[in-house]
Amino acid sequence: MLLAKSAKDSVGKKQAQYVSNAALALARTAKMPERFVIYDQDYQPRHYFGAKLEPKTGVIHGAGQDTQGYVDYSNLFPADQRPMMHMTYITITAGPEYVDEWRKRTMSALKNLEAQGQKTVLQIGLNMTEGLDDGSGSAKKVKEGTFDEAITHFIDALEAFGVPAYVRIGYEFEGEWNNYSPEGFVEAFQIITDRIREREIKDIATVWCSAGGSAGFISFSELMTYYPGDEYVDWWGVDIFSPEELPHPWLNEFYDLAAQHQKPVMIGEATPRYVGVHKNWMSWVRWYKPFFEMVRDRPEIKAISYINWDWAYWSDALGFEWHDWEDARIQEDDVVKTLYLEELNHDIWLHAKDAEQLTN
């Protein structure tokens, strides 16, 4: 739990500051400035919009992206603070057999976590390009029925999992690497949402997830041409990577607009791109502290998913140009790990043990 600490500011007035005793002790031991661990405010009380799978209070603690990475990340935490939400990805354009293989892997992961006493919900990135991120823009083919069988198998999987799931349909929709047209994306999102809802599966929420800074923070007039409509969207989402994205005014406008639409916000993917953990205290100051300051400040944010990856390794494994994204694995630096775990110890965070709060 983070505790309020009184201190005098430069003009002699008392100002509330927020820091945990453990974080403050670490800074003092390392002879680092206390401002590295002190926040100007506590977490703002969360808004509640009554959305599907929205907790009334708190922020869902999530992580990914691969199963073993999720387990390694989870094991960093005490049993009662392990993440609730596990990220996974599926490309429906790869065909029904591919979807079925993903279903088997995901089901196995869920059963293993359940055997360890860890209640888990899913956060699913549903990709609609032919070949991951190849710029083919296949959302329009959803309307044409090209992927009907794969979509059916995907919905079968949602039903079989038997756990709450957040589905980021066509995530990072405005990113040029996806090459979605606004019209094609909107129609695909609506069709997939209708098909999920027709099945009447309990506890499935749709997420409209922007690429944010990775797509250049496009204008909101352009962004909203991709919007399927409030009736089709349960949550808004945005992915956050590089440190310069965190203070960008676009994000605050996005959160404001989400509130106007009465939608909670999920940080669908978050990782310290180009920073990593190995810069020790500077990693914390450059990315982690500003990230948590943003979450503290914006009561619309109700879920985050941290990507606990060594990006160079996965760049080689998957063939993407991620070599300079750095190592984001919390466990690889003692300072980042200590401060990160202490931050997630705040009672605003909802962990696996809190999964029952999602039923509404």
From TrEMBL:
Q: InterPro entries of this UniProt entry?
A: GH, GH26_dom, Glyco_hydro_26
Q: Which Pfam families match?
A: Glyco_hydro_26
Q: Does this entry carry the keyword Transcription?
A: no
Q: Where is the active site?
A: 172 (proton donor), 269 (nucleophile)
Q: Which UniProt keywords apply?
A: Glycosidase, Hydrolase
Carries keyword Hydrolase? yes
Query: What sequence ranges are listed for the domain GH26?
Result: 27-334
GO BP: substituted mannan metabolic process
Which GO terms fall under molecular function for this chain's record?
mannan endo-1,4-beta-mannosidase activity
Protein family per UniProt: Belongs to the glycosyl hydrolase 26 family.
Q: What protein name does the entry list?
A: GH26 domain-containing protein
- The scientific name of the source species is Marinibactrum halimedae
